[in-house]
TrEMBL record:
Pfam families: E1_dh. This is Pyruvate dehydrogenase E1 component subunit alpha. PANTHER family: PYRUVATE DEHYDROGENASE E1 COMPONENT SUBUNIT ALPHA (PTHR11516:SF60), PYRUVATE DEHYDROGENASE E1 COMPONENT, ALPHA SUBUNIT BACTERIAL AND ORGANELLAR (PTHR11516). It catalyses: N(6)-[(R)-lipoyl]-L-lysyl-[protein] + pyruvate + H(+) = N(6)-[(R)-S(8)-acetyldihydrolipoyl]-L-lysyl-[protein] + CO2. Gene3D superfamilies: 3.40.50.970. Residues 79-373 form the Dehydrogenase E1 component domain. The keyword Glycoprotein does not apply. Keywords: Oxidoreductase, Pyruvate, Thiamine pyrophosphate. It comes from the Eukaryota. The pyruvate dehydrogenase complex catalyzes the overall conversion of pyruvate to acetyl-CoA and CO(2).
Length: 402
């Protein structure tokens, strides 16, 4: 059997050797070198091929096996993923130094999902996700300083130090939500508001494989399809719900088929270009009034479920080693260097610049003041300004403040 035919049957998400990938591109009549347009300006659009094993469909046409981009955007994709990785590593260190307390859920290994989605949607589109939200917060406009400040519980954090790791918000970004699966009906409601207001925009509604069996997720599917809501449901399948593998928790792990009556798509969530191409395709479908979609982004978290989980008790070191070989940052950088988008030295310079920026932002975040210990601050942001009641109830009937 020819190598190019055998390559079609690789396990989903597996990396095809470079020489086979190049041969496949040539067989389609594409010439990567010509498409890249060597010598063109950084903002000149050109087409990049997407590997055929990147998508699996359910009652849905696949995205094009290519995506239009520019040299500047490709460099920005790598910068964004590198920034999120460095920010998460900084949070890891601060937690180990006991400066960040409580819950802290990192997304190391899953950067391509947040970055690929953001580069495929507009700022007017809405996004809501679960508690592994730092990368999404950054991509939706949160600053590194405000995110780290929030983790540290500081007044100038993105939620004034009251939300911590799981509750961060910015314009068009509705969190960061701590209750497993509970953000999915909220996202359906956001999509309903978009439909009602005739905004023409879509809602990206994300949850994890551990939440995929929740009843409220399927209730949201049903309502979204009944009303043809402009929503793209998306399961970030990082293979484990806390310490339980998807195979042990779910009778059927093809999460992109879980919508039954809703079309679905499984995406290689370790390839930022595949994510970007898939979301652009789905967004166009939803914006044409075709109703919801169910996406599955197959990814992998390199760390544990949270900082209290070493992540090695329920998975082997060999499994982790194999998945780290698919690091989305390394995979993109290798292609950018091979394609002549940037050199190894340019990539190292970018990485060094990002590392320096993160260090500086962390230092500034640590200088932020803590929230003032006063009742005004305690009861802040509960009511719309001007609608506050005359009295505030405490834990008991005796704890009432006027």
């Amino acid at each position: 059997m020819p190598a190019t035919i055998r390559a079609k049957f690789l396990p989903f998400g597996a990396r095809r050797p470079t020489f086979i990938r190049s041969l496949r591109v040539e067989q389609r009549g594409d010439n990567v070198e010509a498409n890249l347009g060597w010598g063109q300006e950084n903002d000149t659009p050109f087409t990049i091929p997407i590997a055929e094993e990147s998508f699996r469909t359910y009652n849905f046409d696949p995205p094009p096996y290519s995506v239009e981009t520019t040299k500047n955007q490709l460099k920005q994709l790598y910068r964004d993923m590198t920034t999120i990785r460095r920010m998460e590593l900084a949070a890891d260190q601060l937690y180990k130094e006991r400066k960040i307390r409580g819950f802290c859920h990192l997304s190391t290994g899953q950067e391509a999902v947040a970055v690929g989605i953001e580069h495929a949607i507009s700022k007017e589109d809405k996004l809501i996700t679960a508690y592994r939200s730092h990368g999404f917060t950054y991509m939706r406009g949160g600053t590194i300083r405000s995110i780290i400040g929030e983790l540290l519980g500081r007044r100038d954090g993105i939620a004034h130090g009251k939300g911590g790791s799981m509750h961060m918000y910015s314009k068009s970004f509705f969190g960061g939500n701590g209750i497993v699966g509970a953000n999915v009906p909220l996202g359906a409601g956001i999509a309903f508001a978009q439909q009602y207001d005739e905004t023409g925009n879509v809602t990206i509604n994300l949850y994890g494989d551990g939440a995929a069996n929740q009843g409220q997720v399927h209730e949201s599917f049903n309502m979204a399809k009944l009303w043809n809501l402009p929503v793209m449901f998306g399961c970030e399948n990082n293979k484990y719900g806390m310490g339980t593998s998807a195979e042990r928790a779910s009778a059927m792990t093809e999460y992109y088929k879980r919508g039954h009556y809703i079309p679905g798509l499984r995406v290689d969530g370790m390839d930022v270009l595949a994510v970007m191409a898939a979301v652009k395709h789905g967004r166009d479908f939803v914006k044409r009034g075709n109703g919801p979609l169910v996406y599955e982004y197959v990814t992998y978290r390199f760390a544990g479920h949270s900082m209290s989980d070493p992540g090695i008790a329920y998975r082997t070191r060999e499994e982790m080693r194999k998945n780290r070989a698919n690091d989305p940052l390394t995979y993109l950088k290798t292609r950018l260097v091979d394609w002549g988008i940037m050199t190894e030295d340019e990539a190292k310079a970018m990485e060094k610049e990002v590392k320096t920026t993160i260090k500086d932002e962390v230092e500034h975040a640590q200088q932020m003041p803590a929230p003032e210990a006063s009742l005004d601050i305690l009861f802040e942001d509960i009511y719309v300004p001007g609608s506050e009641p005359a009295q505030r109830r405490g834990r008991t009937v005796d704890e009432t403040w006027y």
